[in-house]
Design a protein that fits this description.
single chain; Thiol Ester Dehydrase, Chain A; 6-stranded antiparallel beta sheet; mainly beta; 15% helix
Length: 144
């Protein structure tokens, strides 16, 4: 059973910072930079999709930390451009989950609350996973 890396190393790409991390809900801030630009000076769409996927993971993982999981489907709508230097806030909410899947809604907004992207996703629960020894500290969690 693999032990998940929390937070995931890919967070470094966006200097990601967890704001809320709880089962079924996450809020993450991402810092964009010039290396994220497309040819027109906006943050490249695939990188916005990666930010969204990085919000899904914690919300779903914390529901079932003893199971591996993965996104199997994501429907993403780009609604406004994001520019390098902006801080984007991603929020994921698990709407429904069962034994094998979770359905998630995600939004990505600028600091001025402009909606940059909206997505829905389905995640599937896979085989068992080793829970990191100090999961709360690793994910910077503070449980009530």
């Amino acid at each position: 059973m693999p032990t998940p890396k929390v937070p995931p190393p890919c967070w470094n790409l966006f200097d990601a910072r967890a704001i809320i991390m709880e089962p079924g809900h996450s809020v993450i801030e991402f810092r964009t930079e010039p290396a994220h630009e497309n040819p027109f000076g906006n943050v490249q769409g695939g990188l916005l999709a990666a930010m969204i996927d990085n919000c899904i993971g914690p919300a779903v993982f914390l529901l079932v930390p003893d199971r591996q999981m993965t996104t199997i489907e994501m429907n993403l709508n780009y609604l406004a451009p994001a520019r390098p230097g902006e801080v984007l806030r991603g929020e994921a909410q698990v709407i429904k989950h069962g034994r094998t899947t979770a359905y998630v809604e995600i939004s990505l907004t600028r600091e001025d609350e402009t909606l940059v992207a909206k997505a829905t996703a389905t995640n599937v629960f896979l085989g068992p996973s080793d829970v990191p020894e100090n999961l709360d500290a690793a994910m910077n969690l503070h449980r009530g």
